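1st attempt posting a full record on here, be nice pls
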Amino acid sequence: MDIFDFALQMEKDGRKFYQDAAARCGDKGLQAVFNLLADAEQEHYDLLKSMKKGTAPTTTLTDVLDGTKNLFQQMAERGHALDPKATQTDLYKKGLEIENRSRAFYEEKAGEVKGKDQAALLRTLAAEEGRHADILTNIIEFVSRPRQYLENAEWSGLGR
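the predicted structure (as tokens):
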């Protein structure tokens, strides 16, 4: 399997992962985040597909991180606390692993390809996957925060 076939399958799997995560997540804000990530994976797929056909794709970063910052801000302003169920947190951690592996794959392959355009696209995709990893790290922090607060408050002597 060549780089493009592998990368296309990786992006396809990533999109399905985020669509499934959106469906499993009970929070509308996080569903929106996962849908943004699914759309970004589709954009990556389309870029790779055009590149495989020999078309020079445009390599631009999406604004997915900007959109998620706003969603998290809105959720925090509403005083929203998510249920930190282990199964949900595990789902987000799995997504983080996928994004980190994708980033490493694109960085490695960018050094192996011969064309400058191909290398530039692969580096751009690596940067995008890094942004996705940042989003998932923020989600994990966000859903874990209520548990940390309660654990800290419980042992801080405030309940006496």
